[in-house]
Design the sequence.
């Protein structure tokens, strides 16, 4: 890739990074680590794909870290109000992980930030 093309991509990327940092602060998510955010996106993507995850299934399919670490991150996301448990409509013994309204608002704001960064 030519140097000019590479530079054209660098500036929008760092504008995006700056916008996302501001968004985290404005949503009260200043302490949201990149790992927590990646797990939140993993849970959100599964929910969006209509394949919601139980805690057990999350532990089985998520390879970001050990199950103990993932569980700790999940507890932090729940404490921050980004993920909640809901009953599985097909099996009332199971609870599924669902992104909250706050998480969905944050996802929407991040999506808008992409367009802003490209301007």
Sequence:
């Amino acid at each position: 890739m030519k140097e000019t093309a590479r530079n054209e991509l660098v500036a929008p990327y760092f504008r995006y990074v700056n916008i996302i940092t501001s968004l985290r602060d404005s949503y009260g998510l200043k302490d949201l680590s990149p790992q927590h955010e990646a797990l939140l996106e993993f849970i959100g993507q599964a929910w969006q794909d209509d394949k919601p995850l139980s805690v057990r299934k999350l532990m089985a399919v998520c390879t970001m870290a050990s199950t103990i670490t993932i569980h700790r991150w999940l507890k932090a996301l729940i404490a921050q109000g980004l993920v909640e448990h809901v009953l599985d409509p097909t099996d009332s013994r199971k609870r599924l992980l669902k992104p909250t309204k706050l998480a969905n608002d944050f996802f929407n704001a991040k999506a808008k930030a992409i367009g802003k960064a490209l301007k």
Q: What stands out?
A: The longest strand covers residues 91-99. Residues 3-26 form the longest helix (24 residues).
